[in-house]
Amino acid sequence: MAKKRIVMALGHNALGTNLPEQKAAVEKTSKVIADFIQEGWQVAIVHSNAPQVGMIHTAMNEFGKQHDGYSMAPMSVCSAMSQGYIGYDLQNGLRAELVKRGIYKPVCTILTQVTVDTYDEAFYTPVKRIGRYMTAEEAAEEEAKGNYVVEEPGKGFRRIVASPKPVAIVEIDSIKALMDADQLVIACGGGGIPVMEQGYYLKGASAIVEKDLSSGLLAKELDADVLMILTSVDNVTLNYGTPEQKPISHMTVEEAKEFSNKGHFEFASMLPKITASVDFVENGKGRKAIITSLAKAKESISGKAGTTIE
User: Fold this and answer.
1) Which of 93, 177, 226, 287 has the fewest CB atoms nearer than 10 Å to its CB?
2) Are 114 and 49 in contact (CB under 8 A)?
3) In the structure, what pLDDT confidence band is assigned to residue 39 with cuts at 50, 70 and 90?
4) What are the backbone dihedrals phi and psi of residue 63, each rounded to the nearest 5 degrees, phi first?
């Protein structure tokens, strides 16, 4: 009998925001993932990279400014670097936790590229803020290069980049082969390295792909049974932040669409999770999506916690 397959999308709270925090967070996160493996699940992991890619982008660009002969790093390169070092910590944390339990399963990170549409409307309306705060003069320099900048009153200026939808996962055949071999795979980190097809080549895009949408796409491609999106809250909530807020334990696809259309979910945080979940559930039989916190991950599988969409 084939094992059940789950794609787990880790939010930034499962990883921390700097190197020491990441080490500590990964140790805790690895225990939760190992619990699923011990119970017989095949697991693919997708992780966020927002603090990490911003840190890398700032560091590389500052270095390029201060040293002759060194260029600044494009977003696609920064995304690749974040996949590598987050994957490194996750691999080692998971391997150690599994070995402690007497489970000898290979763990690997796939540097994953995700194609995006050159004509995606997101390129005209960038929303993802990256890097450090800049002065007005530095912001003007960025705009002169053709980059987008937004001002945060009282803080300064920050660069913003597009967040196009993922179209296809370039390394999907390799990921499938590893999953079919019952290995533990870390893929599509940070939503994947955004690339555009140009003839025979893949050209990096100045963008950040939404991690939740790439997680849903990966879950579809792997024909997973469950898409689990782990975030900072235990449940999806209606009327969030108001006296009428109400946590939801279960939604049908139709209800999720209705609540989305009524504007219940915040555009940059919960809405992509709902969108990815609905798309995943609609495109296969017997699937379910779960949105919850890392602490409630195990309970949510049996419907005792979190929000299930099916």
Assistant:
1) 177
2) no
3) very high
4) -65, -45
| Helices and strands in the chain: count of H runs, count of E runs | 9, 17
Residue with tokens 């949105």: 291
For the chain, the average pLDDT equals 90
Please tell me whether residue 247 adopts helix, strand or coil conformation: strand
The stretch 283-294 carries a mean pLDDT of 94
Beta strand pairing call for 128-134 and 156-161: antiparallel
Q: Is the CB of residue 6 less than 8 Å from the CB of residue 226?
A: yes
Size of the chain in residues: 310
For the chain, state the CA radius of gyration.
Answer: 19
Other CB atoms within 10 Å distance of the CB of residue 199: 6
pLDDT of residue 255: 95
Task: Give the residue carrying structure tokens 């977003």.
Answer: 75
Please count the other Cβ atoms lying within 10 Å of the Cβ belonging to residue 197: 15
Which tens digit of pLDDT belongs to each residue from 178-234? 999 999 999 999 999 999 999 999 999 989 999 999 999 999 999 999 999 999 999
Taking a C-beta distance cutoff of 8 angstroms, is the pair 58, 198 a contact?
no
pTM of the complete model: 0.91
Neighbours of 63 (CB within 10 A): 13
DSSP H or E segment with residue 197: strand 193-198
